[in-house]
Design goal:
4-stranded antiparallel beta sheet; about 30% strand
């Protein structure tokens, strides 16, 4: 599904190259659950943004779903991401002015899904995540765990092939965090969703079948769980 060959990301600082990622090379098969770990500043979020087609590498070759991403124009990259990738963020990124139902529905509007279909798909998600009773509430009226559930429902509504999660339990207490990680495990094992998560948590990393350890922008080692 994903192949990264010698991916580097750098910024020019005073005529010098400041590397955030250097010669990163790995692949991810469809249906895998991969964790990326590393200290702050190791390049984890930059790598996730490249995987999500939000950012471009400075050098290297990136293949996703059989497409040579490094050769695509910005609009083509955006369309490829929209059709195949869902994001879950630490900070939820829900739209404050929209209620739960409307937040979950938003991606379908961007995908030009008809109103009647949207209604059925959102109803299915609300039921699946057991948040039917919260559908008319706004993000400020929800707990952190409930907001993250809504964020995950929203990211899955368009049936992405790949789910990218950036510190998905970072703002949650341990019980809520465990519930979210168990949900990811289920999405991966039962629904076959490919998941790549960035995490500081050793415990959360073990939910992945493979852990990639980053240090100073390079892959330090890979371990199998």
């Amino acid at each position: 599904m994903i192949e990264l060959n010698n991916i580097s990301k750098w910024y020019a600082v005073g005529g010098n190259r400041n590397y955030v990622l250097r010669d990163v090379k790995f692949s991810v098969r469809e249906g895998e659950f991969v964790s990326i770990m590393g200290p702050s500043g190791s390049g984890k979020s930059t790598l996730l943004h490249i995987l999500g087609l939000i950012d471009e590498p400075s050098e290297g070759y990136h293949y996703f779903m059989g497409e040579a991403v490094h050769l695509l124009k910005e609009k083509q990259r955006s369309n490829l991401a929209k059709a195949n990738i869902g994001f879950v963020f630490q900070a939820y990124h829900l739209i404050d002015e929209l209620n739960v139902y409307e937040n979950i529905e938003t991606p379908l509007i961007y995908h030009n899904v008809k109103g009647s279909e949207r209604k059925a798909m959102v109803a299915d998600m609300l039921d699946r995540f057991q948040i039917v009773g919260k559908k008319d509430l706004f993000p400020s009226q929800l707990s952190g765990g409930q907001q993250q559930l809504v964020g995950i429902a929203r990211s899955l509504i368009a049936s992405p092939r790949l789910l990218l999660a950036d510190e998905p339990t970072g703002n949650l207490n341990s019980r809520q965090g465990e519930e979210i990680m168990e949900l990811f495990r289920k999405l991966n094992s039962q629904d076959g969703v490919t998941i790549i998560q960035v995490t500081h948590s050793e415990k959360n990393a073990t939910y992945g079948k493979r852990v990639i350890h980053l240090l100073d922008g390079k892959i330090e080692k890979e371990t199998q769980e």
